[in-house]
User: Fold this.
Amino acid sequence: MKFLLSIYGNDETWGGLGPDELAELIAGTDAHNKALVESGELIGAFGTSDLVNVKRVRNGSGNRVVTDGPYIESKEYLGSFYIVDCESLERALEIAAEMPSADLTDIEVWPLMHGGTADEL
Assistant:
């Protein structure tokens, strides 16, 4: 089963880390990622760009409309995401709980219904 693990945060969460705390978070994340690669469960892990680079696209009245974004009600935003392939929801929750970021913020676990790489579609 494939799962999307979404890590959210805000400027206070990430900006409030001192240099040593940030280095520890990065080292812990790298070690966790390596373990997931070795177990064969990690499909990909990606960090997102700064909020100032986000764009939203909508087709309206036959035209493409591009605006700055995100415009969300909360101060939190998507900081990074993982796609894992593991045996069960319980294992996906375990992977999320083992992430160093789980000590700082919530991690959403979304079962993926379908899809795959371009050659699988």
Remarks:
- The domain at 2-120 is CATH 3.30.70.1060 (Alpha-Beta Plaits).
- The chain has one domain: 2-120.
- The chain has a mean pLDDT of 88.
- The two ends are 17 Å apart (CA to CA).
